[in-house]
Design a protein that fits this description.
211 residues, mainly alpha, elongated
Length: 211
């Protein structure tokens, strides 16, 4: 995907990384001297200024390409005060008066299709993976559980309750497997409140009790 630029916000605090992306099509218009003058000041890191710089350049150019945050970007790292629309594990930054990006329903339907036809999450609960060694990867699995849970909750909201069950169950399965008991119980309680007679609910309760 040469049309996609995945920018690491921590590295965006370094001069060489800013120059790197400037040379690869990211809308950075600073000169070498301006980049070299970027200083790390308390409460005002170069990464924050570069995010705003890229945003303003895209806005001025009429948004020739979209801009996203990954869901893994913590709140302190997000400096753009804009509406965010969830699209899988990324959130589209929607500028004021920007072009329509589709309804929330459209995004959930696209996500469901992707999970069902394009992506596999089998390895998220693979017992043969050395999860103690792969702790960083294990921590990432919580994002998939949250995403599956939110998809299941949306299906519940639009009265597609039976269709929601496998996603909610898989979310709890991932949470329970990796010891995220708080998330597992929260998802389970919401599910039980919305559909107390759901077929997979007893199995989900067993997953939580067994951990």
């Amino acid at each position: 995907r040469p049309d996609v630029s995945i920018v690491n916000l921590s590295l965006l605090n370094t001069h060489w990384y800013v120059r790197y992306w400037r040379g690869r099509g990211v809308p950075i218009t600073l000169s070498d001297g301006e980049i070299a003058s970027l200083k790390d000041r308390p409460g005002d890191r170069p990464s924050a200024r570069m995010q705003q710089h890229i945003f303003e350049n895209l806005k001025e150019a009429g948004w020739p390409r979209p801009l996203f945050y990954a869901v893994t970007v913590s709140q302190p790292g997000r400096v753009l005060d804009c509406k965010l629309v969830l699209e899988g594990l990324i959130e589209r930054i929607v500028p004021a008066h920007g072009a329509a990006v589709g309804s929330q329903e459209t995004h959930w339907i696209r996500l469901q299709e992707s999970i069902d036809t394009a992506y596999r999450l089998d390895s998220a609960t693979d017992p043969f993976v050395d999860w103690e060694r792969e702790q960083a990867m294990a921590m990432m699995t919580i994002n998939y559980g949250v995403l599956l849970g939110r998809l299941g909750e949306w299906l519940m909201e639009v009265d597609r309750r039976r269709e929601a069950e496998p996603y909610l169950y898989r979310a709890i399965e991932i949470f329970a497997f990796h010891g995220h008991e708080k998330h597992a119980r929260k998802t389970l309680d919401a599910w039980a409140a919305a559909a107390p007679q759901a077929e997979l609910l007893p199995l989900a309760r067993e997953l939580v009790r067994s951990k």
